[in-house]
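Researcher: Let's run the pair from yesterday's discussion. Sequence first, then tokens, for each.
Model: Starting with the first of the pair.
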Amino acid sequence: MLDKLEGRFFVTFLAVLEEGSFSQAADKLGYVQSTVTAQIRQLEQTCGQTLFQRLPRGVVPTEAGREMADYARRFRRLGEMLEERMSRLEEPRGTVVLRTMESFCVTRLSGFLPGFLGEYPEIRLRLETGFQSDIVDQVARHAADIGIVPRDPGRDDLTFEPLVDEKMIFAASAELARGIEDEGWSALNGRPAIGFGRSCLYRAVAGKLLGEQGAPVPEETEFPSTELIRQMVAAGHGVAFLPEIAVRGEIASGRVAEIPMPREVRLTHGLITRKDRVLNAPARALRNKLSAYFA
């Protein structure tokens, strides 16, 4: 018997039982009456019992129909429980791994994360920092769900979704910036470039920009955080190439100044994910909220 029963037959049966009429059940379900009649007839044939007594006005259940009602209601409840359980799998809960640059965390995600985690208290965010190459590698190897990188890696196995267009600048203390503007890069007088190290894409872009001007690339002093770089730049210990937003407050206060360059440099930071990866619910929530936040 079980292989001949369909869930929609029970739904139709209960509609007829509750409405007391084939025509009213059809209206409730959005069917034509002939569909309801056919489904009840098929259910009766499968059970080998008449389920409804047809009256001049409507129908009433037979003894077999009353027995069927109990099982039909259990079936409906089971379907509701299954639907509820499956829908819970779509609720954003669990762990999501996001890998991005430390400077992006400080300047951009600090305003986003409190609201996101407040809205999704059951999401456990594992935030890791790195540079372009290892972020791309971690996402490609499924070690991170989502990455945020300063440039489209241009890989066939990854998708890149632009988030924010960052203006990049050379920054120095106000006094050192004036000296460089007046005397050229020789005004550094041995002071280093202050940055995140050789693995950082910013270093390569800065070197190319200086090379276009025929300026020497200064030795680099490496620091692990945006905050340290800001402090060292403001104290006059060197020059840094970084997103303008990272030193916007210091520029506004006059402690740091932008060094004029022949052309503007912008880097488009964006989300990367594997094309063949089906993101889980927390990862989808994070991706969607990031896209909306930076839109």
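Model: Moving on to the second of the pair.
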Amino acid sequence: MILKDSKKMLQYLDALLTYGNFTRAAKALYISQPYLTQLIQKLEKELQVEIINRTAKHLQLTEAGKLYYNYLETLENETAKFDDQLSQYTTPNGTTIKLGVLSTLGSYLLPLFLPQFLQTHPDVKILVDENKPQRNEANALDGKIDFYIGQNPETLSSNLIFHECGNHSYFAIIPPTSDFFDQTKTVLPLGSIPMAELLGEQLLLTSSGSAIRRQVDYLLQKYQVQPNIAVESDNIFTIFNLSKLGTGVTIVPEEIIGSLPQQPAYNLYPLSDHLISINFFIAHRADKTLSSVEQDLITAFLAPFN
């Protein structure tokens, strides 16, 4: 098999199905478009059947492709079962907890609570599975992970129980290239920029399907704005840094901004919580019986925001 890593191949296929074409999928995966195209072609040659329907406007799986996708999911399920069985020997005196989280979100949230939790529970082993929100939710429902950590739980399956924290604000990053930039200020007054005009700027956005993007898409629809999107990325830090350098306006949660610049190299424009806000959550299957250690993990997750 050309690519034996079923997890990686599922990520490639998920990206193709999400973005609908090879160029945007490759960009989201941080690989080249020719590499992704050739990989799928070689795989189809090995399988002796097409797995991608290229005649559709938005790429879809063929019937053979659906069968292959299910095969990859079965491999992932078997791998997860094997890891569970093996853990009793690799960590005989401890507990293993599997967390699913988007990589950029995990880079911010996990350091806030995991170090202290592990100090209290030194025998616990944490396995972090970094995936897109849709995959994390599916893995939580299938029992492949113990907890799914995400943001804005409104669309979560009713078969998951979630514990949320906070109500965190968003800011628009106004670069010096924008007409709204004010070199005399760091933070612009709330309400000083009409929302429709702000959304009409050249935008840098997180990829479709992310919690932040869903909220921005709602605003675009609400204010009937056809967006001018210059850059899309799975990595919110990439978008944030590009915006600061003048590539375009973006919208980010307050948690990633960090310290303010001494000189106003860019402006922060606060957005009303009535329009857009962010809540973090940790979720598990509704039928899961939590151990005392797992309950402690939830408490540790919520603690930094209380």
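Researcher: Give me one sentence on the second I can quote.
Model: The chain is about 40% helix and 20% strand.
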